[in-house]
Amino acid sequence: MGLWVENELVMNNKVERLIASLICGLIGCFGATVLSAAGEEESGWVSLFDGRTLKGWQRVNGSASYVAVNGAIVGTTRTDSPNSFLATEKSYDDFVLEFEVKQDGGPANSGVQIRSAIDPAYNEGRVFGYQVDIDPSERDWSGGVYDEQRRGWLYPNSLNPHARGLYKMGEWNHFRIEAIGTTVRTWVNGTPVAHVIDGVSKEGFIALQIHSIGSPDEAGRRTSWRNIRIRETTRGSPPVETLFVRNMLPNDLSDVERRQGWRLLFDGHTTEGWRGAYRTSFPSRGWKIENGELVLLAGGEGGHIVTDELFSALELQLEFRLSGGANSGIMYFVSDRYSASNNTAIGLEYQLLDDAADPDFNRGVITTNTLASLFGLIPRAKMPTNLGIAPRIGNWQHARIVVHLDNRVEHWLNGIKVLEYVRGSPEFRKIVAQSVFSAFPNFGEDGRGRILLQDRGEEVRFRSIKIRAL
Q1: In this predicted model, what pLDDT tens digit does every residue of 398-414 receive, in sequence order?
Q2: Strands 246-247 and 191-197: what pairing?
């Protein structure tokens, strides 16, 4: 190579390096600004897993194995083992938690516990607390919120139809959990899934769950977690105002619920907004307010109560607790058109019933008398048997009625839609014509009506009665 050519190459290399240096410097300065801004937003993250060991974690309950492999914590199902957990040695209260999870070897239910605990005096020392579900089954409730070893499902993904299909079996999935104050919110692969407000647990450990299995064929299935990081903070993401909020705090309205249009029909202290059916005042007997609950007394003969207001398209939700053998109902579109005799009220009825007292139900037959059915017209669907969803007398249960602008009506029970129909449709009118309500012209088709709580002589408790116009 000639000297001139070599010198030219050397010079060109120097120029290129100089230009590259200048560009890198400019990019570096700009990049530093970006990283500084991002760093300020992303500051405070701490890794909970060093990628090599299980330092900072301890296995509790069960005998499933947990090992650190290739930068991931791998848990493996095992026969004859109850639910197993790998728990942090540290407890956390307010935080944002992120991780990635992948399953292989076959689908297996799993989850991540937050604000959880062990008490030797409670339930034989089993782990209890909030769990964010990892569910590769056909049910597809990944990101839903379950209360392990206590109340069961708080937020099944049936409450959020957009959550279906987010979790990908056999691939790495990104989860985000915000537990701040009384609020727990979840995301799967960047999409919001659940929004729960509850005050039962405010701090506790984090744990990776390997669920018990039902058959030896399910042994050896693996759930892997990586990039597990936490940021302790009291500030969360802006709430998603289109997401249904499951607020477990009695008679409470969060800011996001108010922005969604919800308001209380019962404030927990007074009977304001209610009166006796076909009366001008609230009954002087048969009903009382106790511990923030509107209580229908057994044998109190107070009669039905109705709202002062009339409603049309609406969404109504409330919690109720039935006593053994109780029979009551939530009526909507209760019309003033029909004459009242013996304090009788006419309207569409969400049935409230202790199903165990129904001979048909005990024979495995769901009728229009069954809990959450449209009384006398349409039976509800069969309910899942999961804890917190399957009806239990003595427990608080969640009722939800949605009447859309197009007259579609939905009945929900404990987060599950159990029936749907269309007011005024040919199918609806045919059912009415074959029922006891055929004597009432245009039954159930009024443009608006009152909400009614029915007195059938047994104790029923109500709270968190909320409504919003649609």
Answers
A1: 999 999 999 999 999 99
A2: parallel
For the chain, list the domains and their CATH numbers: 46-232 (2.60.120.560), 251-469 (2.60.120.560)
H and E: helices and strands count for the chain = 4, 29
Helix, strand, or coil here: 381?
coil
Give the separation between CA 314 and CA 309, rounded to whole angstroms: 12
**Ramachandran region of residue 301, left (φ > 0), alpha (ψ -120 to 50) or beta?**
left
Residue type, 2: G
Burial (0-12, 13-18, 19+ Cβ within 10 Å), 308: exposed
Tokens representing 381?
Answer: 């669907």
d(CA 78, CA 84): 9
Helix, strand or coil, per DSSP, at residue 432: helix
- 51-to-55, 175, 227, 276 alpha-carbon distances in Å: 10, 18, 8, 65
Q: Write b or e for each residue in 220-233: b if 16 or more Cβ atoms lie within 10 A of its Cβ, otherwise e.
A: ebbbbbbbbebbee
Q: Please list, residue by residue across 99-120, b when 16 or more beta carbons sit within 10 angstroms of its beta carbon and e when fewer do.
A: bbbbbeebbbbbbbbbbbbbee
Structural element, H or E, at residue 288 = strand 287-290
* 85-118 residue pLDDT tens: 999 999 999 999 999 999 999 999 999 999 999 9
- Alpha carbon dihedral 284, 288, 294, 298, in 10-degree steps, equals -90
H or E element at residue 12: helix 3-42
Burial of residue 240 (number of CB atoms within 10 Å: 0-12, 13-18, 19+) = middle
Q: How far is 416 from 398, CA to CA, in rounded Å?
A: 10
Nearest to 51 by CA among 36, 69, 25, 77: 69
pLDDT of 340 higher than 70: no
* Dihedrals phi, psi of 435, to nearest 5 degrees: -120, 180
- DSSP string computed for 131-153: EEEE--STT--TT-EEEETTTEE
Q: Which helix (H) or strand (E) holds 129?
A: strand 128-134
Which residue, 377, 456, 453, 378, is CA-closest to 417?
Answer: 378
Residues 6+ positions from 11 with CB-CB distance below 8 Å: none
466: closest CA among 451, 446, 447, 448?
A: 451
What is the pTM (predicted TM-score) of this model? 0.89
Chain centroid to Cα 220, Å, comes to: 30
- Where does residue 395 rank: exposed (0-12), middle (13-18), buried (19+ CB within 10 A)? middle
Q: Which pLDDT does position 341 carry in this prediction?
A: 57
